[in-house]
Amino acid sequence: MIDRVIGRRGALALLAAGLLGGCRAAPAEAGRGLVTLDGGTARLALLLRREQAGTVAVTGGDPVLPAIAAVQGAPVLDLGGAGGLDLEALARLRPEVLAGHRLPGVPAELLRGLARLRLVRRTGDVRADALALGAAVGAAGAAVAAWEAFERDRAELAARLAARRMPTISVLGAGRGDGVVTTVSGSTAAGQVLRALGVARPAAQEAVADGPLPFPEISGERLGEHDADLLVLLRGNAGSVREQPLLRTSPAVRAGRVVEADQFEWAALASLPSARWVLADLAGLLLERSAPLLGIGSPGGLDRLRGFRAG
Hints:
Layout: E1 5-6, H1 8-17, E2 34-36, H2 39-47, E3 52-55, H3 64-72, E4 77-78, E5 85-86, H4 87-93, E6 97-100, H5 108-112, E7 116-119, H6 126-136, H7 140-162, E8 169-174, E9 181-182, H8 189-197, H9 203-207, E10 217-218, E11 230-236, E12 239-240, H10 251-255, E13 258-262, H11 263-266, H12 272-288, H13 299-310
Parallel strand pairs: 2-3, 2-6, 3-4, 6-7, 8-11, 11-13
Antiparallel strand pairs: 1-5, 8-9, 9-10, 11-12
Helix pairs in contact: 2-3, 6-7, 7-12, 8-12
Main location: other
Signal peptide: 1-25
Protein name: ABC transporter substrate-binding protein
């Protein structure tokens, strides 16, 4: 009996023992559609109207899973969590195509034994990654159209904002451990969209925007350097950074100049679906003073996804 959820050590053991033969899928023509290998690819496939039979939820509790099922009108199987892979479930599903970024800890040779494997190297360039992943999931033309729609929306919003006095915006999230506060760099959806719109952030955040870490930590004594006209506090499964004691002294918090945004989308490594989500949030926030949407699977979130797919 093999472990249902495996990491790299278990996968290599399977390969060495030659146990993949009993798990091999049927030929491609008998496969059951598409399985995505990460949350970003799952979101893109959903955006591009490609039905998914399964996905690997690398981040535990990722709300994209129920959102996929609701929007595509068919169930999607969760094939992993926290970097693992449910190999038995994947073999039983017998997918035709596995597509996405490389799954941490799982050798490509293992996946090639189960389906046609289309791995895409993450570059951090939203357009390049979207077009490559779009081709991988079998929707190259739709990916081009989705990118062009995003660019039109971004240019239109930037033009409208250019005629207004824009607030400075600080983005803060909860880090690992109690009392740890982080921000987002230019490798995240929020960082890239804010920069593309020309929205100013505190100098301390601009200074780390091009750094190597996607979520630089902020020490308590320097938190004051991250105050701004408007604080965007990220909320995820573990709650909101608003609950951190360090923020109680923030002038913006005391003045009520605070909104909460979805951590899964804003703090995602930059991708076209998350960039579209952040752009829509900022359009509502800066033009209409409406709060960002919390939850990709909420009623408002599902409506937004359906709108993205339609346009």
